Amino acid sequence: MLRFYRVWIGVLHALIGIQFFLAGYGALGTGSPDESFSLHIMNGRLIAAVALLGILFAALSRAGGKLVGLAAGVLGLVVLQSLIALVSVAGTTPGQIIFGFHAINALMIMGVAEASARLAKRLIAERKERAESAEALPAAA
């Protein structure tokens, strides 16, 4: 299940990359902001669903609380991303400043997702090493 989690986080990384593209696409869109950013918003909802399921898969992998915590951190930051977009008032200086944190938070989402993927990779390697050493012990006796 830990390998599946690692693949799942890879899917999340791909969606995050697509999200950056869609943000640029929406920023240069010719229609209303609602139309221009509709794909960005839909992909954001998909990212939230993938992040939510990531918590479940991290727990099912029985890899420990740190991995589950990182998976939950990703979801928490995704929820914060929506709140930032919700509370920023377009056309106002405070709104623009608040919305500036939307991009910074997106980088934080990527960072926490990457930390989660690296931890999963390390845990897979440790499990493999333990399994190999356990197989070698009876052969030596």
Q: What is the CA–CA distance across the termini?
A: 32 Å
Q: Which parts are unreliable, with pLDDT below 50 for 5 consecutive residues or more?
A: none
- Secondary-structure element order, as H and E? HHHHH
What structural class do the secondary elements suggest?
mainly alpha
Q: Which percent range fits the helix content?
A: over 70%
Q: How many independent structural domains?
A: 1
Biggest sheet details = none
Task: Look at the structure and give the mean pLDDT.
Answer: 92
Q: Which band does the percent of strand residues land in?
A: under 5%
**Rounded radius of gyration (Å):** 19 Å
Number of helices, where a helix is a run of at least 4 consecutive DSSP H or I residues: 5
Shape: elongated
Number of strands: 0
Q: Could you please describe the fold and organization of this structure?
A:
It is elongated, with a radius of gyration of 19 Å. The model has no long low-confidence stretch (mean pLDDT 92). The protein is 88% helix and 0% strand. The protein is mostly helical and 141 residues long. The longest helix has 48 residues, at 93-140. The chain contains five helices and no strands. It has helices at residues 2-27, 33-36, 38-60, 65-87, 93-140. The protein has one domain.
